Amino acid sequence: MTETTPSNDLTSGSTWHNIWHMSWSMLLVMFLNFFVGLTDIYVAGFLGPEIQAVVGFVTELYFFVIIAANAISTGTVAMLSRAVGAHNSEKAVSIAVQSLVFAIACAISITIAGIIFHERLISLAGFSDSISARAGEFFVIFAVALVPNYIVVISNAIFRSGGEVRLTLIAMFFVSLINIVLDFLLVFGAAGWGGMGYRGIAFATAISMFAGMIICFALFKKSRWSDIFSGAWHLSGRHIRGILRISWPAALLQLAWNSGSIVLYNILGRLDEGSVIAMAALTSGLRIEAFIYLPMFALNMAASVLTGQNLGAGEAGRAERIGWKLAVTGVTFVSLLALPVFIWAGPVASVIAKDSGVLTETTFYLRVMMLSEPFMALSLILGGCLQGAGDTKGTMFVIVIALWAIRLPLAYLLAVTAGYGAAGVWAAMVISMFFQGIAMTFRYRAGGWKVLMVTEH
Q1: Which of 40, 74, 269, 287 has a CB 3.0–4.6 Å from the CB of 126, allowing a cystine?
Q2: pLDDT score, position 283
Q3: At residue 5, does pLDDT exceed 50?
Q4: 437 is in which domain, residue-wise?
């Protein structure tokens, strides 16, 4: 691996230039991921509300089993971006190798456990027996592709940490293209072949991940990370401990978040009337809402790398200024996106929701949730800064409290106990996001993450 080149140096020059350099490619990557999810739900919409509900729930469950990959990627970005910011090439390569090896080991273990216990996991949704059987098929197919999925996630974290977001864009462009094309081809068939039906959605994801793994390895070979393949791949206790120290709060956070999403589906499943409609509306609404999240997730990822590299270079003040600039930009931008969605929620919802009942509920969901988008932006962007600094515990505490102490108890109280139905769940989601955004802002403003970084550095 060569030394950091000026084009990838995020520790000097214009902060706005560096923000743009990191953000635009990541925004395109987020759009690609969004269109994959949108295509899954769009195709499922032709197969009925039950399949839409299954796809939505299994997608949430799949996020649950890639928690370790996302957590390892958080630790990888925090440690690797510091090494890049300090121009320590040898350490950077070593961290990258350790992250990949550790991720592969975790993926193999989780794949085995997921296949063995998939029926118990699916039962958490409260589906009927026939719907549960279909969801089980989905999940097993997804689980087979877990190892390549983990490799793709960690590879992209390595690319981002070095400021080489173009490589992430290349990899995810081909992964997304393959997934989208196969969604239609495998579900509906072509040239006289009748297709695989709803199973094709799962197979499209699995095949695209195997292709993505091959693409990422090819990009490593042709990039500054080619030294990854020059030595033996083995686990190093020192680096693994460092990754674990940063990653475990991120893993716990994602565990709490994804299990919380499953609980939300379970609460909706307890409604006497319209439970399937409500679950399908949540699935559709989350996919549409994800469009607004795209710029925020891009800024979240940019914030992590920019914070990590600048702290690694000893530029704590510059790191803080970048965080506030990102937050103001995100809140402004998401507000501009949320307003037209609030006004034209019906036509927007009709893009995905084909059933009339699902369309009505999705429209209502969108109008309610648009009120919380600025607070979501604050939470995502400033949380990304904290994670890039290694303060994953602070991020975890804020979000877990908002979810498990506010959102879920309030959702059950309003929806089931008070009898407000799905509207009670939507209201609880908004109220919890208000708290989450405000609490994350106070955590960032306190500045403890800068002291933590100085001590470790």
Answers
A1: 269
A2: 82
A3: no
A4: 12-456
